[in-house]
Amino acid sequence: MTTRTEQTDDNSSNDSPSKRPRPELSPLYNPEVLPNELKNVDFTQRITWGKYAPYTEEVLPLKALDAPATPKHRLEMHIHNLSNRARAGTIHLQRPSSRPIPTPMFMPVGTKGCLKGVTIDELMHCLDCPIILGNTYHLAIQPGTELIREQGQLRKFQGNGNHNLLTDSGGFQMVSLSKLSNISEEGVTFENPFAKGETMLLKPEDSIRHQTNIGADIIMALDDVVSSVIADHDRFREATYRTLRWYDRCLQAKAEGDPDHQQNLFPIVQGGLDTQLGGLREQCLAGFRNRDQDVAGFAIGGLAGGESKDDFWRVVNQCCKALPDDRPRYLMGVGYPLDLVVCTALGVDMYDCVYPTRTARFGVALINDGTCKLKAQACATDFRVIQENCKCQACQLGITRSRLHFMYKTGNPVAVQLLTQHNLTYMMQLVGDMRNAILENRYPTYARAFVKNMFAEEAVPGWVVDALNEAGISLQE
Ligand SMILES: [Zn+2]
């Protein structure tokens, strides 16, 4: 049997290095400006942690679905099965009696700590949603994270639930919501939306302090976010390296603020849309591989910001192929049902987005073949429920689209409440269906059926075909 090393040696003896074609590296690869820690990385190869599967035929070691979390300094991810590259797993948090999180999972966003129109109890028990996301920026501005801490942290502040929480770093909103924001090595300076003329500085240490006050199970490192549609290469390069440096500062701040290791800090992979060998995504991945031992899970950031779908899936694909199999992969800000089906095929485990709840406020229902606009005149005489076989309150009570149409028309707030519940029920059903399909080794069949249903009357977009092909799923079968 020939080992890989022997093959390499054979090749090199027959073929002098100068004759071998040099793999084409990204134009953004410049050894002169690489941080010292990355200077010895071989960027002619793809960055990878080394995989169990599915890039070989080997399957990950199975662990029991209900395997208890052993006391550890970070969360545990158990992968139960792979169907092509799609993963079904369970995340066990280290907080005593915390509820395990099945994956793939969608996390609804409770911007100011709660979702509009849904109580925590409804979320946990009626909608069976194990984890929600809170926005650090909004909570820091109002009511302030010190006040939340005084009342026993956010979980208690929300009303004694046993739900799991994830908070973002706050950086994204500072950049996206503020007219005036300025990023320096120290942190992000932005205009205080509640005190005209005043500026505030958010440093990586501040972000962690706020997130420690809030007390979420999973917290995010402050990253240097650049809009994915700008074309400033130097700015992307600066942001990529700064994201690595800021992660180190976040980790240090967390060590001081969370000595009992109750919180899990996720770094965010940045690097724009540059997926080429030696490109910025590869450089960022290499940087986090160097910091691997402390990382509880990884987020994929800098997407869902208006980039082309082709760029979008290629970045997701690259990150999933590189990142280690034994930790969660969280794709930030992604929540269209089609995106979930495609990105799960590529190997993503967690998602969050305001879309299902925000769109409910505009009267848009998520249904199996796309969306239904309840405010549209056509719904005035549509006597069907929103979606057959849906377990939400409105569909179970037999409330028709027509009834909801008139509730929206007359400004009845219960309509928004019912539709928010419906859309979240749809999302939880979607991730549950994906998980079952993966556990039963039939994710390709599931994804094909989903796409065919959604595009029954129009051509399937090229990016969907390409991304699924990359995941080994052909739509032709
Ligand atoms: Zn429903």
UniProtKB/TrEMBL annotation:
Q: Which residues cross the membrane?
A: none
Mention any one GO cellular component term assigned to this protein in its UniProt record. cytosol
- In this entry, which stretches build a coiled coil? none
Keywords for the protein's UniProt record, in alphabetical order? Glycosyltransferase, Metal-binding, Transferase, tRNA processing, Zinc
Q: What is its EC number?
A: 2.4.2.64
Disordered, as annotated region? 1-32
GO MF, any single term: metal ion binding
Biased composition, class Polar residues, residue ranges = 1-16
Quote the Pfam families the UniProt record gives: TGT
Q: Could you tell me which residue ranges the tRNA-guanine(15) transglycosylase-like domain spans?
A: 85-454
Q: Which GO biological process categories is it annotated with? A: tRNA modification
Highest taxon above the source species: Eukaryota
Question: Which PANTHER family does UniProt cross-reference here?
Answer: QUEUINE TRNA-RIBOSYLTRANSFERASE CATALYTIC SUBUNIT 1
* The protein, known as: tRNA-guanosine(34) queuine transglycosylase
Q: Which organism is it from?
A: Fistulifera solaris (Oleaginous diatom)
